[in-house]
Amino acid sequence: MRLGKDSVKVYRNESPFLSTFYQLQHHYSNFPDELLSVVFLGCQEFDCCCLTLQPCKNPVLTPEGYLYDKEAVLEFILHQKKEIAKQLKKFDKQKNREQEELKELGRAELASKKQSLQISSQAPGAAAKQQAAAASSISNMGSSKSKELPSFWIPSMTPAAGPSKVKKPDEKVKCPMSGKPLRLKDLITVNFTDIMDRDSKTALITKQARYVCAVTNDVLGNSIPCAVLRPSGSVVTMECVEKIIKKDMLDPINGAKLREKDIIQLQRGASGFAAAGNKLEARKEGAVLMA
Fold first, then answer.
1. Total tally of structural domains belonging to the chain
2. Which terminal CB of the chain, N or C, has fewer other CB atoms within 10 Å?
3. 47-51, 98-102, 176-180: range with lowest mean pLDDT
4. Cβ distance 235 to 213 under 8 Å?
5. How far apart are CA 273 and CA 43, in angstroms?
């Protein structure tokens, strides 16, 4: 079958719950004649939680600009604290076990020194006989144990690996996106400004354009750099910040004075274009040569 130039179509993922090729294909199965290939460019919307990847109900922001849903980030912090407590218990047990092993080793060395002193204090002939007996008991080559040599190629004969050492965990909960400490008191409540339209029947979560700038009423999206003002939690465009807000350094919503650190750029998602994201990283993997 010959395909025309319009045979392959690209459909936008309008629903946040469709994240795989199969789900999209099933969703658009009402028009199979048109749908020959679906190109899905998965991306996180700018107003989605970095943990759930769904639009935030109660959005909060970290000082680094990463958006989370309050319920999700609270659950994440509690889970991480439990994991840290478990790792600390394992580390303490390992530390106590190592201390007991050191004490046992010290006692064994002390007993060995006492035995050597006893042997040296005896007659030369008796000492030589005891040393020869000890050497024959240690060696497994001259006795019946010589037939019990371990076969290292047989799985049942291989030596068992010792328990892996547990490193002391960091007691601070880290942000999964930035790696910086994540504290509840540092989170900033975000107040998005809903778009004013007459379509009241469609749910807000299914709309492509959901929020606007709190000052200029420009529609917000992944391709538009945004910032959150710490005093009011309002979301504005970076263009508004540069042209309007930075002139007086006042929050236009509540009139509070602003500092540079009070203007937090929102780490938004990306579109299908390579230059749409804030962080771009390229890696080239090659052969590793052993020295």
1. 1
2. C
3. 98-102
4. yes
5. 11
222 vs 224: CA distance, rounded Å: 6
Looking up residue 30, the CATH number of its domain turns out to be 3.30.40
- 131: which 2 tokens? 């040393």
Q: Which residues pair with 236 in a beta bridge?
A: 227
**Contact status, residue 238 vs residue 251, Cβ threshold 8 Å:** no
Q: Who has greater pLDDT, 50 or 31?
A: 50
| 231: pLDDT strictly greater than 80 | yes
Rounded to the nearest 10°, the torsion over CA 236, 242, 243, 244 is 50
43-52, 73-82, 133-142, 235-244 — which is least confidently predicted? 133-142
Contact 121, 115 (CB under 8 A): no
Task: Look up residue 46 and give its two tokens.
Answer: 């700018």
pLDDT number for residue 288: 55
pTM above 0.90, yes or no: no
In the predicted model, what is the mean pLDDT of residues 133-141?
51
DSSP letters, 39-93, are -------TTB-TTT-SB-SSEEE-TTS-EEEHHHHHHHHHHHHHHHHHHHHHHHH
Alpha-carbon distance of 131 to 137, in angstroms, equals 10
Q: Is residue 234 part of a domain?
A: yes
Quote the domain boundaries for residue 236: 16-71+187-265
Instruction: In whole angstroms, give the CA distance from residue 224 to residue 211.
Output: 12
Longest dimension (CA), the chain: 109
